[in-house]
Design a protein that fits this description.
By secondary structure, the protein is mostly beta strands. The protein is built from one helix and four strands; from the N terminus they run H-E-E-E-E.
């Protein structure tokens, strides 16, 4: 059975950032972070954000995409 997964649009990604807890956060650079959310058993949903701390803090959505969940799992756990 081939099950099609529907990925969120930009508004859905904002909703995920505001309401869900990431299962991983990686610092990409001084201002850029990779947030990893568990989408299902096989896939994660990756969100890249940029944070600017000039006056009011600004969070910019850089990119978002599905990724294989096994890439973040260690074999020795």
């Amino acid at each position: 059975m081939n099950v099609r997964v529907i990925y969120p649009d930009a508004n859905g990604v904002v909703n995920i950032i505001l309401n869900d807890t990431p299962c991983g956060i990686l610092k990409q650079s001084e201002e850029k972070f990779k947030l990893i959310y568990n989408l299902n058993d096989d896939d994660d949903f990756v969100v890249i954000i940029s944070i600017k701390n000039s006056g009011p803090v600004r969070i910019n959505l850089v990119s978002y995409f599905p990724d294989e969940a096994k890439k973040r799992r260690r074999e020795d756990v």
